[in-house]
Amino acid sequence: MKAKLVFSTVAALLQTTYCASQGSLLKVQEDIVKSLIAKKSKALTPEQKELIESVKAVITDTAIPDIMSAQQEDVKRLEEHTAAFDDCAAHFVEMEAEVMTLIDRMKLSRTTSNTCYNEKSVLDDQFESESTGLETYLSMQSPPSPQLPLTSMGTEVEMYIAELVAYFKSFNATYKDYKLQKSDTNKSCVEKSMECSAKNADYESAYCIMLDEVNAVKGHDAECYSITWTLYEETWTSAVANAASRKSDYGIAMQLLCFIDALLEEDTLASLQKLHGCETTTPDTDFLDMVAPDLPDPSTDSIDTLMAAVDVHIDLKVHCAASEEGRYDGESAYDESPYDESPYESPY
Fold it and tell me: Is residue 199 within 8 Å of residue 112, measured between CB atoms?
């Protein structure tokens, strides 16, 4: 009679406990156990014992290992998505190095361009000085009077002619030297101007390439963290829900094992004691809780440091076609990133 009471009580507990679970992992094992209990009012037959031992083996060898395996899979996925934050940081370091290389190239081309314009300025000053020198020279000229001497003496006429010839010979030679020197300088100025235009074009190209790369780094960095955070948050939410289901299944599995041990107990009193223990003991499932991993500090220090390095080179005189729509505004790369609302607080 007491054995029948044990089996009837176990059947009732199985009916109210496991069937309430949303999981179906242990449904087959539950049905087998309930079937044996429903048919049994005496001690189990050898066949029934063998059957229930096989059920126990399924739970211990398959069901519980599957629960633990699923737990590890979720932990692994969380670790992968957490590591993705480090991947974003590592990729940023690589891109930052490329930007710094482009900054160095831009600085070199700017120095070359500035040096060229300084040299051109010297030539311009030289040309201006030579032009002024020529004008001064011309303004200071006092050629001999064009009037012939009023005398019949041939000697005075000859002297006049000789003086006139000597003056213009000297004047023409000096004027020619001035003009030649000015012409040479003007030619140098034109050539230097063309050279400087080419070097300035190289500088502007290097500047715009650098600026475009900076904007690309900003965009990629913000996108990387945004996507990584979204994937992490989805994984975390799923893992927490899965953990709750696993904890329920694990609790049911352990209670089923407890009931099975009670069924297999030959001594009725011992069976009742075990049953009482099954009813009053709650399996420990805390180890199945998901532990939120340590996430990197959502600081913008790195991107802000890079932007500060770029800010000192901003040249408002240069207009870059790909950057005129405000891709670079000197602000933090995370102004529109998920970090604005401290997303790392949500999983805890």
Answer: yes
Cα–Cα distance, 211 to 203 (Å, whole number):
12
Measured CA to CA, the distance from residue 9 to residue 279 in angstroms comes to 10
Cα separation, 27 vs 31, whole angstroms: 6
Query: CA 63, CA 73: separation in Å to the nearest integer?
Result: 15
pTM exceeds 0.70 for this model: no
- What average pLDDT values come out for the chain (348 residues) when binned by 10 residues? 41 37 52 53 73 86 92 92 90 94 96 96 93 89 74 73 84 89 92 96 95 93 92 92 92 87 79 78 91 82 91 93 47 36 33
CA-to-CA distance for 15 and 59, rounded, in angstroms?
Answer: 18
**Hey, what amino acid is at 231?**
L
CA distance to 7, 100, 177, per residue, from 16 (Å): 14, 68, 117
- CA distance from start to end of the chain: 52
Comparing CA positions, the residue from 42, 36, 62, 27 lying closest to residue 260 is 36
**What type of residue is 300?**
T
Helix ranges (DSSP H) in 265-315: 268-280, 301-311
Biggest distance spanned by C-alpha atoms of the chain: 175
**Cβ atoms within 10 Å of 320's Cβ, excluding its own:** 18
Helices 268-280 and 154-264, packing angle to 10 deg:
150
> Helix 154-264 crosses helix 46-58 at what angle (to 10 degrees)?
170
